Amino acid sequence: MRSRAPVFALALFAAASAGALAQTYATPTAAPRTTDPRALAALALRRELHERFERGLAAENRGEWAGAEAEFKRAVALDPPEPQGSTARYDLALAEANLGRDDAAAELLHQALHLDPSFAAAAANLVAIELRRGDLPAARAAGDRFVALDPQAALARYGRGLAALQSGDLATARGDFGTLLTNDPAYAVAHYDLALVELRAGRDDAARAELERALTLSPAYARARFALGTVLLRDGQRADARIAFDRCAHDAADPVLRALAADLRDKL
Amino acid sequence: MGAELVLGDPAALVPSAPPALLGPITENGRTGWDCAPERAARAHTAAAAGLPGD
């Protein structure tokens, strides 16, 4: 019987060569050309949008917020599809916020979230802006939305926790700071905020425990040291309170807090 | 904020600072591995989220 091996090998070689040829690009593919007015308009829009984003981001990185605002306003006016539509509004909101126009920034972030409901960075900045301008109901609503979007996000729990604490919803605030601490037990600031929740709930012992945890993690945390001093003083521990206020007066970078701590220390 | 007020009313103690704003995003949008603001927004720890230190 004659061997078929040479024929088989030749067939394999031919197949391999054809495969290699198929992967070879001897000449670059010609750029697509069109004379269709709609296609040309779409190309022009994409080019302008790209340029507006490039210029706007460069301006934001330089802190030139007015320049960034102009570029992103034009990008929004071009009414681009997603993801550029929500992104242009997000970037414009950042410029507006840095120009002190928090109302405009909040409205733009609402629009961005309408276009892309899963846009977590937009949800985070909306909470931050509402907290910054002191609109607690709006901050709470934005926080609720962010927590629903990503319940484990540290920014979501922190932002909504602050809104809830400041508006007196202690149960929600306790839950949010508690979740934040479950994920990140070494975050001293959340222990401090949780202590404020417990203080407002009249649970001084729980507050003191949280403040001591915060200060174990961050011994120079002046605001927590001050709060601990007030708890100790209310509990009649004047000597310990005096030590806490004295330490706070040394550690505090904030001149108001430093003066307040020194005042309380000197009265004891 | 006076000393007497702070001692008499725990609500006079100031909570921590609001979170800082997350930074700009390129025209590629929030999806993808290199969108730092979106990653920070979804981070589970304070440091990765850029939360305030005091």
Largest sheet data of chain A: none
Helix share of residues of chain A? over 70%
CATH topology of the domain at 191-268 in chain A: Serine Threonine Protein Phosphatase 5, Tetratricopeptide repeat
Kindly estimate the percentage of residues of chain B that lie in beta strands according to DSSP. Answer: under 5%
Calculate Rg of chain A over CA atoms.
30 Å
**What is the CATH architecture descriptor of the domain at 191-268 in chain A?**
Alpha Horseshoe
- Counting H and I runs of at least 4 residues, what is the number of helices of chain B? 3
- N-to-C series of helices and strands of chain A: HHHHHHHHHHHHHH
Q: Looking at the structure, what is the overall shape of chain B?
A: elongated
Strand-pairing-aware structural class of chain A: mainly alpha
Report the C-alpha radius of gyration of chain B, rounded: 18 Å
Model regions low in confidence, pLDDT < 50 over at least 5 residues of chain B: none
Q: How large a portion of the residues of chain A is in β-strands, by DSSP E?
A: under 5%
* Helical run tally of chain A: 14
**In the CATH hierarchy, what is the superfamily of the domain at 191-268 in chain A?**
Tetratricopeptide repeat domain
Question: Which oligomeric state applies?
Answer: heterodimer
Q: Which blocks of ≥5 consecutive residues of chain A have pLDDT under 50?
A: 7-21
Order of helices and strands of chain B: HHH
Protein chain pair with the most extensive contact, residues per chain: A-B, 66 and 43 residues
Largest beta-sheet details of chain B: none
Describe the protein in words.
The complex is a heterodimer of chains A (268) and B (54). Chain A has 268 residues and is mainly alpha-helical. Chain A has a domain at 191-268: Tetratricopeptide repeat domain (Serine Threonine Protein Phosphatase 5, Tetratricopeptide repeat, Alpha Horseshoe), CATH 1.25.40.10. Helices cover 77% and strands 0% of the residues of chain A. Chain A contains 14 helices and no strands. Chain A has helices spanning 5-22, 37-62, 65-77, 84-98, 102-115, 120-132, 136-149, 154-166, 170-183, 188-200, 204-217, 222-234, 238-251, 255-267. Chain A is elongated, with a radius of gyration of 30 Å. Chain A starts with a helix and ends with a helix. The relative contact order of chain A is 0.05. Chain B is an all-alpha fold and 54 residues long. Chain B is elongated and about 55 Å long. Chains A and B meet through helix 2, helix 4, helix 6, helix 8 and helix 10 of A and helix 1, helix 2 and helix 3 of B.
